[in-house]
Amino acid sequence: MDETEVLIAGAGPTGLVLALWLVRQGVKVRIVDRSEGPGTSSRAMAVQARTLELYRQLDLADEIVAGGLRNPAINLWVKGERRARLSFRDAGRELTPFPFVLIYPQDRHERVLVRHLEEAGVRVERNTELLGFEQGAGGVVARLRGPAGESVCNAAWLAGCDGAHSIVRHQLGTGFEGGTYEHTFYVADVEVTGPSANGEIHLSLEDGDFAALFAYDQHGSARLVGAVRDEEVRKGNELAFDDVRQRAITSLGLTIDNVNWFSTYRVHHRIAGQFRVGRALLLGDAAHVHSPAGGQGMNTGIGDAVNLAWKLAHVLRGRAPESLIDSYDVERKAFARKLVETTDRAFSFVIAEGGFADFVRTRIAPLFASAAYGIEPIRAFMFRVLSQMGVHYPDSPLSAGSAGHVKGGERLPWTGNGGPDNHAPLSAIAWQVHVYGTVRPELAAWCARRGVALHHAEWCDACQAAGLARDAAYLVRPDTYVALADRDGNPDALERYVVERGIRPA
Q1: pTM, whole model, 2 decimals?
Q2: Which homologous superfamily does the CATH classification assign to the domain defined by 180-268?
Q3: 20 to 30 A from 284, CA-CA: which of 65, 83, 310, 358?
């Protein structure tokens, strides 16, 4: 029997990120995957700003950004005319160091994560399948089948990162409520030429049709997504690229020079009933699947992994009670439900058919989008939603207090546009206290006694613009979210917070 602290089933981005964050915190892991190696097709493309912020914790962000294409804008096309251009740079430059959507094919992305994990001393065990598991009071006994045959692994925790057809979820019996859209869609990696092959995102809306183009280099290599003609689906034959609806593609002025990969799929929207059952946990597609609208899927799985990793490390090291893990289910399931609802509405709007739907999609929506994007607060809100910087946990048992415009459970705002880069210290993956202004001596003494790093910055215009309060204390979680915001900077409030939750922050 092999012993480990966390057994991770599935070596996609979610499982790899979970392993990296756990290893960084000194946790022993095994990660297994039934495939022979990382994926060879691009699949998920978009890496959102919030994911890149989290990647700074392990010095991954610069390498990932350097390998991808910074996409500065979304262009909306209707019947061959570009009707709106929504700039990420304008919307996000005061909010994040990464005011863009990074287009970085998943196969390249996975290879970087695998290499960093190997450098940390952990290899993905390929061709190794989780067959089943049993839970006891002290952990999980998992049955594996690998190249050498069947074996057993004892683990304190099992993380199911094994995708939409998760063995872990099926055995837990949590359910997977939701449904499937009627339409069949295609995804293709193509080489294109034409006016819209300019390294930006393009969405073409037509009567009864749509196409989305995501460039991932400046030389015409791109991902193309759209709908298949219904009559071809009804024939039941194997579909090819020539069977897709072409009107929206033509409206982008594209010439398809080569199709390197083509696949069709049905889109699902489902959520598991529980993300934690005993010592087994569900993350990524094993816990939730939804439409590809907005490029949220992979980023959500990565967010699951970072949220869970520090909590597992705390419990395994005796720094928090096991009940801390329950907050993973509370926080991430609430976000997943909201995300499914949001992407469902967006996707339903894009694929809706009928005269009225066509009129709204091709006439009203581009005008509204262009006008709304010209209003700074709306532009910032739209960027927060797309980039996942707006993810917050207002109903979490770990969220408390407010100071300025910042509440417990929200991401620590960034002050680096004109002020100090207050996100730089977050690479520690540790509890820390941030104060912008004057630090009370008794607060400094509390931090020293508790072994919590205190980061102080002089009050500045950027601090005020970010919504922070002068002289307030912000207790920041290891995953860079504000746990407690106390407007008075009172150490008694911080002490009550950690004692009531049984947390030893250092």
Answers
A1: 0.93
A2: D-Amino Acid Oxidase, subunit A, domain 2 (3.30.9.10)
A3: 65
